[in-house]
Specification:
By secondary structure, this protein is an alpha/beta fold. It folds into three domains: about 5-195, Up-down Bundle (Ferritin); about 215-510, Vaccinia Virus protein VP39 (Rossmann fold, 3-Layer(aba) Sandwich); about 530-558. Helix content is about 40%, strand content about 15%. It has a nine-stranded mixed beta sheet. Strand 3, helix 10 (about 250-260) and strand 4 form a beta-alpha-beta unit. Helix 1 (about 5-25) packs across helix 8 and helix 9 (about 225-235) packs parallel to helix 14. The chain is globular and about 100 Å long. The termini are far apart. The model is unreliable at about 215-220 (pLDDT under 50).
């Protein structure tokens, strides 16, 4: 990301967090999360609507455009009749939906909220430009009415928006101030897509609110570069895409970017997701709706293990970053659950429960990628080693990627990516790539030395890093331009995995990187280094004797 883009986002974050601070003294974190995010969504859809409205006005006045309105038909370009005609055309819903822009009713437009948030304190009767009369009792009622109108005109959002502002036990003037403050939030930037700005805001707030509520923000947030890497490697170009721990929908958004970048059609992909946290479930739905992506997130937010929202789904691509090392996940889950085909996961760690749940929902030719803690690659406690052995012997593991540390904002747990598939036979994938027969082979990539420090504590990948890993994986799959690279990548057969007791840590297989030959014969180098070591020992003895003399002079018994 360019420095100017990052600076823009940093400034945006500060503005938004300042808005949250306005409510801290009167609402707890769980409540002001809903309050701020609902208003941010309203501001975004209104801004997007206004941008499209301005585009339409320019098109109506451009004689070269198909939407041109000839001013000669309306008593001239400066006439009131011409201005009225343009204003009426700007209110045609189809102009917005065809450009994948939300239709925003007049009582839900941000300017209407800003103009009226002070006059409705204590109650007021308002009139909209399209002739509607609204009886509004409070600022909270004004906001709820706006959200209700958006849901009514955009059925995919039915039940998604958080229409509870009227119920908030808060000074109405505080809500009015919040509207004025969020009015300063821009969803326009020269090199950033407005939808991606909103997605960034969602991710930032989820992490911050999680911290404020005493939770680990990492349970919500997957670094964008890791999401991009999994999407690039799996190439979800056509078919059903599923995330059983979807958060705010990051994998689906990156899939959209991937498809667009490769000139595909987002309509060729069907999106399925599940999420337990109600707020995050709502944000994911908003994230899809504003992008015009059709989705199925089940009837409600629900626990993936006890209330599977897609029991019959068999997806072509499954991608997830489930909570690491989750404990006590199995309450209400039977030991003989059909998902545990390769062994019952231990109660104290859900890693292999997530993995097997995803495998259960994978189509016969499907592929999946999930982020797990490093312990999943080597642990032998509580049946985990037995499950991993079964996965390997059934030839389900395709690729393992070890990641560098310091990738996550809220946890230092080192992580890896598992890539699995139910079919390593020769076939053509959804991108038209002809895959070779990879039966009995696993690719190991040790990416721990890739990336750069983006600040003092966080590491990130460059796009070149992502492309390098992706290209190696795809070359290996098709059998062209691939070769092992000591210290980085190795294609291993199942017999070799057995020799390592079915441990899947890439470092065990890729070995150490070959060092460059400096031309100095070994015997000469050894003699030289031994001589240097003797000199350093002698110098150490001299300094120790000198220190003892000095301490004795100060009266210390040495």
């Amino acid at each position: 990301m360019k420095n100017t883009d990052q600076q823009f986002l940093n400034t945006l974050e500060k503005t938004l967090w300042t808005s949250a601070d306005k409510l801290r003294s009167t609402l707890d974190a769980a409540q002001y999360k809903h309050t701020v995010l609902g208003l941010v969504f309203l501001k975004y859809v209104s801004d997007a609507f206004d941008i499209r409205r301005d585009e339409l006005e320019a098109q109506f006045k451009n004689e070269a455009h198909e939407y041109f309105l000839d001013p000669d038909d309306y008593d001239g370009a400066d006439s009131e009749e011409y201005a009225t005609a343009i204003a009426e055309e700007q209110e045609e819903r189809d102009y917005y939906t065809e450009a994948n822009v939300f239709w925003v009713p007049q009582q839900a437009r941000w300017q209407f909220l800003q103009d009226n948030n002070k006059t409705v304190i204590g109650g007021a009767e308002l009139s909209t430009a399209d002739g509607k009369t609204l009886k509004i009792s409070s600022v909270g009622n004004l906001i709820d009415n706006a959200l209700e109108a958006i849901e009514h005109d955009n059925p995919k959002l039915k039940g998604v928006l958080n229409k509870r502002y009227t119920q908030l036990q808060i000074d109405q003037s505080k809500l009015g101030e919040l509207i004025d403050l969020i009015a300063t939030v821009p969803f326009k930037h020269e090199s950033l897509d407005s939808k991606d700005i909103l997605g960034h805001v969602y991710e930032y707030f989820l992490g911050q609110f999680a911290l404020a509520e005493g939770k680990k923000g990492g349970q919500f947030y997957t670094p964008k570069s890791i999401v991009s890497l999994i999407v690039q490697m799996l190439e979800p170009f056509k078919g059903r895409v599923y995330d059983p721990a979807m958060g705010s929908g990051g994998f689906f958004v990156q899939s959209e970017h991937f498809i667009s970048a490769h000139k595909g059609r987002i309509g060729d992909v069907s999106i399925y997701g599940q999420e337990y946290n109600h707020t995050t479930w709502q944000l994911a739905a908003m994230n899809m709706a504003i992008r015009g992506i059709d989705f199925n997130f089940g009837k409600e937010p629900a626990n993936t293990y006890t209330n599977d929202q897609h029991p019959d789904l068999r997806a072509d691509f499954v991608m997830a970053n489930p909570p690491f090392n989750m404990k006590e996940w199995d309450t209400g889950v039977a030991d003989d659950d059909p998902r545990w085909q390769y062994g019952t996961p231990p109660s104290g760690n859900a890693n292999f429960a997530w993995l097997q749940h995803m495998l259960y929902h994978l189509a016969p030719n499907g592929s999946m990628g999930l982020l797990l803690a490093n312990g999943s690659m080597s642990s032998n406690t509580n049946n985990e080693g037995t499950i991993r052995k079964a996965l390997i012997e059934n030839d389900l593991v395709e690729c393992m990627v070890a990641l560098p540390g310091q990738l996550f904002t809220n946890t230092q747990i080192p992580a890896c990516i598992w890539f699995l598939t139910k079919n390593k036979s020769e076939r053509t994938n959804s991108r038209g790539r002809k895959l070779r027969n990879r039966k009995g082979e696993v690719l190991f990539i040790d990416a721990r030395n890739l990336g750069y420090m983006k600040d003092r504590v966080l590491r990130d990948f460059t796009q070149d890093d992502l492309n390098r890993v992706t290209e190696i994986f795809h070359n290996w799959q098709v059998g062209e331009n691939y070769k092992d690279e000591a210290g980085f990548v190795k294609s291993a057969e199942l017999d070799e995995l057995k020799k390592h007791d079915f441990v899947l840590t890439p470092g065990r297989y890729v070995g150490a990187a070959a060092e460059e030959d400096d031309g100095e014969p070994f015997a000469e180098k050894m003699a030289r280094l031994t001589g240097q070591l003797k000199e350093q020992f002698a110098e150490s003895d001299r300094l120790e004797a000198e220190i003892k003399v000095n301490l004795a002079g100060l009266g210390y018994d040495v």
